[in-house]
Every structure is written in structure tokens, then in C-alpha cells.
Amino acid sequence: MKRIILLTLLLLPLLSQADTTDLSSSVQPKYKTNYTASPITYTVTQDSIDEACQSAKTKVSSQSDSFITTMKKTYPDYVYSTSFSECNTSKVSPGDLSLDQLGNVVVTATVSYTEPSDSGSSASEQCSAQSPMQDTFNNVVNGSYINYNGCQYEATGVIVCNNSKTVCAATWKPTGIVSSSDSTESTVSDSSDLSDGADSDGSNSGDTSEGSSNNSSSGSAISKDDMTSAVKEGLISASPTVADEFKSKFTENDTSSEDKESANELSESNIKKLEDNLNNTVRGAGKFADPDQSVGRYGDGSSEMDLAVSQASSQIGIDKDSYGSSWASFMNDGALLPSIPHGNGCSPFIMFPGQVYQMEIDCDKLGDIKSVLSWVMYCLTFWNVFTSLTSLLRKGDE
Q1: Rounded distance, CA 384 to CA 373, Å?
Q2: E strand segments, 100-144
Q3: Could you tell me the mean pLDDT of each successive run of 10 residues in the chain, 398 residues long?
Q4: What are the DSSP calls for 338-383, one per residue?
Q5: Taking Cα atoms as reference points, which of 154, 116, 145, 113 lies closest to residue 22?
Q6: In whole angstroms, what is the distance from residue 308 CA to residue 318 CA?
């Protein structure tokens, strides 16, 4: 029994500690394939790597939100917090890479969940209750977040950082997130650390920040005049570039007059070509139909059809009066009508002429025979049609 009690006392502190779960997301940066290189290379830019990092952070943030939502169904009273690591780009770098060098960037999210304490408020509530601070801090994460006194703060307002974005001056507001145990603690830094590329030339130090929290350590705070001067100079230096960018992106040269002139010239050229082709066709057809031009002239100059007409006439013997040619169908009346035989009237039918047993059938007898045979053919035709139709109807009934 004593052993069980002792084991329980040892496990209680472990269970009261915050549990963490690591989630990660990897994204491959966009690349351009260089097929002309041998072997083939893949060009990756720093912008594509940054874009992949942002995409990986968005994905892992969505994963952490889903994880917390699932956990809250079972442990609704737990205190949850999420912290993100810096983007790991060790497996890919800008430049022309081979296929095995084309790796992914990775962003890891650490989700902490702690059982609420019975006494006092939770750590997350304590972090949310902290006051904003206006000061300069080092160990800034991505130029936006710091971990100070166990709580995470976000940079707001006018933000001034050095080139590496590890030292920034801003108004820091608590996010309500408890810093993870492996997070690097930020400390108050001197504003002179911002001289590494920061635009803060203002030297007035009279109006300094008064809104720093009681959690901040002593140190030199960047003044409002320094921030205002940095922002003003940045806007002034960027104005010409911004104006040129807006002009090039949202305006275009007025080429309406040149376009109209070009369209008119093209229309006139096409009309002239069409007119020449029509005149050429009319001249050729007129000369073919009336080679002697007895009716009149069909325009000046020669036609491209003249050579074809002369070749057809001399080599093949085709002219406008020759039947059997395609021209005859258009140039001569009755060329398309077939020859229909014409009878010569009725004459007596004589068998064995000049013989004693000569037999002669007059035309009136032939007419009677024709009528009888016509009636017989009519009856046979009617009977054939009738039997065909009735056989079809019988097959349909079956």
C-alpha cells in the first residue's frame, strides 16, 4: 500500500505538466525547369522559397487548429497554445539545382495543452492580461513576435527593425499564447542595435515611449520622433518608385490614332486586292466567251485566265463550243439535256415477206395488241404490289 501511495505522489507532478504535440508541414518551392542545360536543372528563387514557407505555415496552422478542435471535444477545460518554428530551408537554396537538391521547406507547430489549475487563473489568461509594451527587443521571430516572461507578444503600430529582423522597435501586444519551453526568451535591447540597416536618423529624444509594461526591463526606448522620421524618409524615398510602378502597371500608351491609321491602310489594301481579282476574273471570262471581242471590251490588260484558256484550247482542244467539257454546261443551251429518241409512226408488221405464207399485221391490230398487253402489265404490276404489301403486313403480325 505504501508503494502505491509513493508511486502516485511521484506521478502527480508529471501529469500536471503541460503536454505538447508537434505538427509539421513541408512544401516544395516553385521552380523553373531548364531543359537546355545538360543535365536538366531547376531554378529556385528566394521569393519562391519565402512563398513556400508562408504556405507551409498556413497549412500547419490549419492542422493545429483542427487538432485543438478535436482535443477540446474530450478536454474542453484544458488551456491550449500554439507556437511556430522558423521555416527550415536547409534542404533547398536559391539557384540552379539538380533533382536531388530540390527539397522542401518545413514549418513545425508545437501545440501545448495544460490541465487547468484549481487555484487562480490559467497561464493563457495571465498572458492575455498583460499590458502592451513600447520598446526595443532582440530575439524577434520573423520580425513579428517575441517571447517575454513566458508569454508571446506581437509587434503592432510602427515597426522598425534591423536588416536581419531580429531586433525591432514597436508596440508589443500580448497574444494570450504561453511561450513554449524551447522558445528563445527576448530581452530589451538598446535602440542603437537598430543601426544595422534601419532607417532611424531622427535624433530627438524628448518624447519617449511611456506605455511600457512593468514586465519590461530597463533600457533605451526608441522615441516617437525617431519612428516618425524613419517612416517619413521611407515614404519620401519610395514615392518616385511607387509612382513609376503605378504608372507602368495601371496605364498604357494611347495608340488609338496609330491603330486607326494601320487599320485604314489594311482595309484599303484588301479592297484593292479584291477589286483586282474581280477585274481579272471578268476579263478572263469575257475573253473566253467572246475571244473576238465582237460584243465589247472586257477591261484593259491581260488576265491570268488567258494562259489557261490558250493551253486548254491548243493542248486539249477544249473551247466554249466543245461538248463534253465543263464549259459546255454553262456556255451552250441544251448541253446538260440527254438525247431522247423519237419514233417514226406506226407501220404494218410483216412476217416472211414475199413468201406464200407471208403474214401481215396491220397497225390497228398492233394497237389492239398493245392495249391488251398494257392491261396485262397493269394487272401484274397491281398484283405484285398487293402481294408485297400483304406479305409485309403478315410478317408484322408475327
Answers
A1: 16
A2: 105-114, 133-137
A3: 36 51 91 86 92 91 88 81 89 88 91 68 80 89 88 91 87 90 82 57 36 38 67 69 71 81 90 82 70 61 66 60 54 60 75 84 86 93 92 72
A4: PPPP-------EEESTTSTT-EEE-HHHHHHHHHHHHHHHHHHHHH
A5: 113
A6: 11
